[in-house]
UniProtKB/TrEMBL annotation:
Keywords of the record: ATP-binding, Carbohydrate metabolism, Glycogen biosynthesis, Glycogen metabolism, Kinase, Nucleotide-binding, Transferase
Family statement drawn from the similarity comment of this UniProt entry: Belongs to the aminoglycoside phosphotransferase family.
Name of the protein in its database record: Maltokinase
Lineage summary: Bacteria, Bacillati, Actinomycetota, Actinomycetes, Kitasatosporales
Keyword ATP-binding: yes
Subunit structure: Monomer.
Length: 486
């Protein structure tokens, strides 16, 4: 590969003139090694073949006095196996000397260009830099192509102490003084990120089921890379959201596992979570556009699900013997479309599972992370969808919790059934619509989710593959969700 492929830049980048020349040239060799090691890097296993600098903004001058860090904001298109893959957001710190506490954040030492001799590191690890970011978020306005906005009803105090979140996550979050949490999106697409769009709509509707956004930032006027289906474009791209932090909260996954391990019941919580989910759905339907799916759209969804099954089966051989029987669920969905039935659709969470529900210190359930399924294009994630998709996600999650220690444990099936049932009962009592009365829809969405999970586990956690495989086995023999309680 020629050196020039590493230094190619868009002619219309939003970088500040002081940082542009040679910037990518000196960073490329470091990023080539560092990026694939990051948890949030989505293109693992495929070689990086080029970088394209979309924008570069100095938030704090680089190469200042000895010991003074600089902060450089980058949007970087990564090309893999010769095609543009994703755009990533990097907040790079620069120092002449890296203190030992920041060693785990090191990216490497730059040679040549404007960064020559400086140590480059992930700036989100550095409280001095994340304190600067909070100050920038508190003051609405523009810096280069970055725009910082605040929610008028929120007052974020100055000087809150930052710390990097240690949660396992797809993005990177910084907690400020136990009052606010800033999620910095790593993979960036044009348009409002549904995590901001939905949380804001819910908070403005008065919902207490969401951590209210107080400030956010976005990228403006970015060039559309040639031939990129989901590249950075004319619409502002959400880059980060500062939301209320819920100290002392625990997520539904931890709580369900604890209950499972202790042999205690979690059904009252499951019921309350079903009710909370129904409340969120009602608020989303009030606040954002709704619609109904016609025959063509239902059949398209069914065909897409069948396609995803084929893709997963091509990669995971364990799935192949079940393919024909699983397809029946998608066939039935398609037939449902053929009957002329219209299915109500609205904005939904899109990737709901127990880890996306936080139980506060006051035993109230809130939902977080409205980003949708990260592997799907943003445009698709923002379409109205049947709320039963979220219900199916949560039902899958109770099954995961039950089978987490031993997928074949004799008690697992009954535990899962009781909690799935309690969730549906809570949902039905609040919404007036019982998901168990939509067996074709719920079976199709549950099957689609289980297929997604098989692929997810095969790629990320192969030891967990038996968990969704046990569901595949069950779904292939077609029992619709059982109603235990009325
Ligand atoms: N508002 C909040 N209050 C307290 N903890 C939170 C809040 N939002 C997120 N978290 C914690 O951070 C973790 C990751 O958040 P999430 O939004 O799921 O990030 P990602 O989309 O990067 O995976 C959550 O599992 C939870 O532990
Ligand atoms: O955390 P994300 O929103 O990025 O979601 C991805 O990772 C999840 C695992 O962390 C994965 O969820 C699956 O495992 C969970 C237990 O760890 C379980 O509760 C979920 O039901 C199951 O789907 C999720 O699918 C994936 O998109």
């Amino acid at each position: 590969m020629s050196d020039s492929s590493w230094t190619r830049t868009s002619p219309t980048t939003g970088r500040s003139p002081a940082t542009a020349p040679g910037l990518l040239h000196s960073l490329s060799p470091l990023l080539l090694e560092w990026l694939p090691q990051q948890r949030w890097f989505a293109g693992k296993g495929r070689p990086i073949t080029g970088f394209d600098l979309v924008s570069a903004t100095e938030l704090l001058p680089m190469g200042g006095r000895l010991g003074t860090p600089g902060l450089l904001h980058l949007l970087l298109d990564v090309e893999q196996t010769g095609r543009r893959a994703d755009c990533y957001q990097l907040l790079l710190g620069t120092r002449t000397l890296l203190p030992p506490a920041l060693a785990p954040a090191a990216v490497g030492q730059a040679t040549g260009g404007p960064l020559d001799g400086l140590t480059i590191y992930d700036g989100l690890y550095d409280p001095r830099l994340t304190a600067v970011l909070l100050e920038r978020l508190r003051a609405p306005g523009r810096t280069g192509r970055l725009r910082f906005l605040t929610e008028p009803s929120a007052t974020v105090p100055a000087g809150l102490a930052p710390r990097l979140s240690t949660a396992e996550q797809s993005n990177t979050s910084v907690i400020y003084g136990d009052e606010y949490i800033l999620k910095v999106f790593r993979r960036v697409s044009p348009g409002a990120n549904p995590d901001l769009e939905l949380s804001l709509a819910l908070a403005r509707d008065g919902s207490r089921r969401v951590a209210a956004p107080a400030a956010w930032f976005e990228a403006l006027e970015l060039p559309e890379p040639a031939g990129a289906p989901d590249g950075i474009g004319a619409e502002p791209a959400t880059l980060g959201v500062l939301q209320r932090y819920l100290p002392g909260s625990a997520d539904g996954w931890e709580l369900a596992l604890r209950a499972m391990d202790d042999g205690t019941e979690f059904t009252a919580d499951a019921r309350a979570l079903g009710a909370a989910t129904a409340e969120v759905h009602a608020a989303l339907a009030r606040a954002l556009p709704t619609g109904s799916l016609d025959r063509r759209r239902i059949q398209l969804i069914a065909a897409t699900m069948a396609q995803r099954l084929d893709t997963a089966a091509a990669e995971v051989p364990e799935l192949r013997p079940y393919r024909t029987r699983l397809r029946a669920a998608f066939h039935d969905l398609s037939e449902l479309g053929g009957t002329g039935a219209r299915v109500a659709a609205q904005r939904i969470h899109g990737d709901l599972h127990l880890g996306q529900a936080l139980r506060t210190a006051d035993h109230d359930w809130l939902l977080i992370d409205f980003e949708g399924e990260p592997s799907r294009p943003l445009s698709e994630r923002r379409l109205p969808a049947p709320p039963v998709q979220d219900v199916a996600g949560m039902l899958r999650s109770f099954d995961y919790a039950a089978r987490h220690r031993d997928p074949a444990a004799p008690t697992a099936g009954a535990w899962a059934e009781r909690h799935r049932d309690a969730f549906c009962t809570g949902y039905a009592a609040t919404s007036g619509t019982d998901p168990r009365d939509q067996p074709v829809l719920i079976r199709a969405y549950e099957t689609d989710k289980a297929v997604y999970e098989v692929l997810y586990e095969a790629r990320h956690r192969p030891a967990w593959l038996p968990i969704p495989m046990s569901a595949i086995d069950r779904l292939a023999s077609n029992p619709p969700p059982r109603r235990i309680t009325p």
